[in-house]
Amino acid sequence: MWATRARVAAVASTRAAPTARAAARAPLCAHRSLLAGARLLSTRSGGRRRTTTSSSSTSTIDADNDQDGDGDQDADEPYTLQTFKDTYPLAMAASRFRAPATDSLLEGAQWWESQFLIPIRRTLSNLAGKGWLNGRLTDTSAEAEKDSAGNDMDLYIPDQFIAGATSGITALFRMLSTPPSPAWHRLLKPELQATLIRHASALHSHGLRPTLTLVSLDNVAVRDIWFTFGDGDVVTTTLNRAPVVETFGALSVLRKTRLGGQPIALYREVGFEYAMERGDYETDDDGKLVAPPIAVRGRMIKKGQVVGIDVVADAEIDVTISRVGSTDNADGAGNADADGDARDATVWTRTIKRPILVRFETDHFMQELPETGWRIADIDNWRASKMYD
Predict the structure, then answer these.
(1) How far is Cα 186 from Cα 350, in angstroms, rounded to an integer?
(2) Pairwise CA distance, residues 238 & 384, whole Å
(3) Cα–Cα distance between 320 and 236 in angstroms, integer?
(4) How far from chain centre, in Å, is Cα 26?
(5) Burial group, residue 371, by CB count within 10 angstroms (0-12, 13-18, 19+)
(6) How far is Cα of residue 305 from the mean position of the Cα atoms in its chain?
(7) CB atoms inside a 10 Å sphere around CB 259
(8) What pLDDT is recorded for position 22?
(9) What is the pLDDT of residues 243-289, one digit of tens each?
(10) In percent, how much of the chain has pLDDT > 70?
(11) Which of 68, 255, 267, 314 is the most buried (most CB within 10 A)?
(12) For the chain, what is the radius of gyration of the CA atoms?
């Protein structure tokens, strides 16, 4: 979506709102931004809607359509308005984004781990990830703006990245109100794209149109940085879904799955995950997988990585589901215009006003960011909440 060391579509400052200074330095962010020319969302818009639910909207609501509890629409169940509410990646009913699966490991932690050890280790992990990215991606060219000591004033994390992420989130909500197109692939990673297309297609088949309006976006910040190291044939995301087979404390976990047609052991320690192929992972005398030694982790790092960055922001989003070309409103009132032509009728609306979480992810790369740059891989932990299923 955007990368570094050339042109950029950065249009926001590192803090809550854009400034003239940030806009002037926008070209520091990327060599092939897919958001070039994107306009920054204004912090407020007129004609704001409030949360309402039409009295007859329940006519399109069936029972819960997630019978197996995995958070996805079951194939043999009809798609209903309730399906949209329950399984759309942007969490519709919650007052906060979903909890990631990694939080489940914290439930048995001792108080001293929860209060001291775990926060410290997460902070150190994020600092290491930030340093790794800044060392490779910060613009250190002669044209980059310097402070009085000659240091770069804009680091890639958070400065340049937050500018691009703000543009990316703005573009995301504009896109979700339009029919699927090739532009979706340029902004979304494949699994999230496929899910959003399924929702859009199902709504369309029922004569319904979703409109998601980003009214405001403030306090955009980096929350966590994630790495998955390993061969490019098996490592495509930081959000691999696999069951836990061993845990090593509250922040280290080992899972086993198949990626690229072969068995893979995934060992994660805080924000760093290593995808080990057969021959790389070891077992103890009882046949249980063990945490990989440093030498094995080093070999995985040399094979390249996918990087994910969780961004949080305070957002206000108006969500409307309309029936296309209807002559009646949801309450039965006439809905034709002055010429008698049908207009869209509102079926359901909601205003979401809370923090949202968006994970931006790269494709696999070795040294420099791939041409695809950063794309959106998750919204409100829709995928991250199911990683350990």
Answers:
(1) 28
(2) 9
(3) 34
(4) 23
(5) exposed
(6) 18
(7) 19
(8) 37
(9) 999 998 888 999 999 998 999 999 999 999 999 998 888 888 887 88
(10) 72
(11) 267
(12) 23
Confidence of residue 154 (pLDDT cuts 50, 70, 90): confident
Looking at this protein, which amino acid is placed at residue 40? Answer: L
Q: State yes or no: pLDDT of 296 exceeds 90.
A: yes
Model confidence band, residue 91 (pLDDT cutoffs 50, 70, 90): very high
Determine the Cα–Cα distance for residues 214 and 42; give it in Å rounded to an integer. Answer: 9
Return the residue matching tokens 């994910």.
Answer: 308
Query: E strands of the chain, at which residues?
Result: 208-229, 244-247, 252-259, 262-269, 272-277, 305-326, 343-361, 375-379
Whether residue 336 contacts residue 352, with contact meaning beta carbons closer than 8 Å, is answered with: no
Tokens of 65: 């359509």
Cα 323 from Cα 275, distance rounded (Å): 46
Q: Which two tokens stand for residue 240?
A: 């691999």
C-alpha dihedral sign at 30, 34, 39, 42: negative
pLDDT of residue 16: 36
Confidence (pLDDT) at 326: 62
Taking the CA atoms of residue 332, residue 338, residue 342 and residue 344 in that order, the dihedral angle to the nearest 10 degrees is -70
Structure tokens at 76: 């043999």
Amino acid (one-letter) located at 340: G
Beta-sheet pairing, 262-269 with 305-326 = unpaired
Tokens of 49: 């809607």
Distance CA 8, CA 1 (A): 10
pLDDT of residue 109: 83
Cα 284 from Cα 353, distance rounded (Å): 50
Task: Return d(Cα 102, Cα 378) in angstroms, integer.
Answer: 15
Order across the sheet with 252-259: list the strands.
Answer: 244-247, 252-259, 262-269, 272-277, 208-229, 305-326, 343-361, 375-379
| DSSP-assigned letter for residue 118 | H
pLDDT, one tens digit per residue, over 9-64 is 333 333 333 333 333 333 323 333 333 323 222 233 333 333 333 333 333 323 33
Q: Which pair of tokens denotes residue 283?
A: 């077992």
Q: What are phi and psi of 209, to 5 degrees?
A: -130, 125
Among residues 91, 78, 46, the alpha carbon closest in space to that of 319 is found at 91
Ramachandran assignment for 155, one of left (phi > 0), alpha (psi -120 to 50 degrees), beta (any other): beta
